[in-house]
Amino acid sequence: MQSFLNDVAKKIINSNKDLSQIRMVVPSIRAIKFLKEELKNELEAVALSPQILSIEEFIHELSGIEKGSNIDLLFTFYKIYQEHTPKKEQNSFDQFLNWAPLLLQEFNEIDAQMVDANLIFSFMGAVEKIEEWDPKKMGDLGKQFFKFQERVPLYYDQLYKKLQSQQIGYSGLQYREATHNLGHYMMSVQAFHFFVGFNALTKAEEVIFQELIAEELSLIHISEPTRQAEISYA
User: What's the pLDDT score for residue 141?
Assistant: First the structure.
């Protein structure tokens, strides 16, 4: 990784761009330290350093949404669950904790991959109904399950709106909101962006990177972990 970052540092310095007008986005806070060192080693004179951000910091800035702690997200989700579930069908908080983290992770993936939530939940519910149940033989447990499945899109929608209004959320929500704010960001930003060291991208990351490239505001360097090759998109 360090040899890759050294190559990136050389390329940025040789790009003839004003370093003070460059924003570099890397996968982790740890990578910031190493990239700063490589830039310092390659600079032959005193110069203003580019701004270097982790992808988490960049998405936070772009989305305006704080990353919520797991416990805060679960408490908020439980309130939504109570508000939109008949009292006689509600789980206790302990029971809720058995399945809610997994459902939150599904919500997270749906948003990070820019999936239409209503469409995917509708499809999943239809498949499960066809494959798993004979409606004529369905007992109370089966009926409760389908009532729950039917409410999942509502839980998702209400939780999203609640978190958005509080300006906190899980990472997928941050990513989806970041894509919504991208147009305004591109109109106001003056810097050129380098996205460095990324491998597998979420759909939201692809959208953000590609839009900045299309506006000639970005260059991507993707490091392949198997052979540390560099692929550039301009």
Answer: 43
